Amino acid sequence: MKKILVCGAGGFIGGHLVKRLKADGHWVRGVDLKQHEFSELPADEFVIGDLREQSVCREVLDRPFDEIYQLAADMGGAGYIFTGEQDADVMHNSATINLNVVHQAQKVGVHKIFYSSSACMYPEYNQLDPDNPKCAEDSAYPAAPDSEYGWEKLFSERLYLSYARNYGMQIRIGRFHNIFGEEGTWQGGREKSPAALCRKVAEAPDGGAIEVWGDGLQTRSFLYIDECLEAVRRLMDSNFAEPINIGSEEMVTINRLAETVMEVAGKSLSLKHIEGPLGVRGRNSDNNLIREKLGWEPTMPLIDGIRKTYQWISAQVERQHSQSADRSYGTA
Question: 3-181+223-246: which CATH number, 3.40.50.720, 3.10.330.10, 3.40.50.2000, 3.30.565.10?
């Protein structure tokens, strides 16, 4: 049984990771600004704290944990990251967390850390063609991310790798490509496209329309949460010490993603294209390296993950509408 710290345990991926680690038999302490919104996590300890504060880092990182999973970050979907309105907070908050965590980990003798990077750190110039984006790990330089979020991720990768070189720490870095699934943000402005589209389809009457930002021809790939966790655990158990993509190679347009959600929901809807923040024109995970180094690749088709996610979000929408109706009639 390992003693493990999960930073960002109150978030989508962090919450699922806590459950996975406990199922694997480990002792887990979670830390986040808030409790998980949708689940009571089985963590042995859960600390409410702000990792931007050095005192909080000292409190939660008070021993040489066997492993740390650092997923805490200021983040969201395109509507949060690509408007530019949160750039200063995104860079300051996430960089401060990473500086504090890795410094305190080194001080108390933690040797192994997983850092959750992002495909947003890849150069924009390699992602202009929606049909042929280039996201191999060795394409990261010359650096030119399309957002400050991506620049911070790139900086923090180099931060952790510097600690590996100078202090002998074992650093594992996964570059996540659009992870989705149940028990994640699905409304409020920080949700990502699979959750946003599931919500829009669930709320729309059959024969109606849903809004899609841009022309919908921008491309992405989406990895279901269970597959993400499997890749992360395999990476942590491996000796591979360079950044690696964790994503799906099943690339689709956003229009096709919306159509997949409609298919799962059994609804016939039209798409209304509107202006909105888009990010790069095309992005797809290149899994050649993870196949070579870890002997692994995802196997779940996109539609299967969307089916699970839609069922969960549809239930959230229905519950929210029911609660609103109860309040309107004074029964809540």
Answer: 3.40.50.720
Place of tokens 């790798």: 161
CA atoms of 61 and 101, how far apart (whole Å): 8
* Residue 75: per-residue pLDDT: 83
Is 122 noted as a catalytic residue in this protein? Answer: no
- Dist CA 135 CA 121 (whole Å): 10
Residues sharing a CB contact under 8 Å with residue 179, sequence separation 6 or more, in sequence order = 12, 13, 222, 223, 224, 225, 228, 246
Q: Which of 80, 149, 160, 224 is catalytic?
A: 149
Q: How confident is the model over 44-85, as pLDDT tens digits?
A: 999 999 999 999 999 999 999 999 999 999 987 777 877 889
pTM, entire model: 0.94
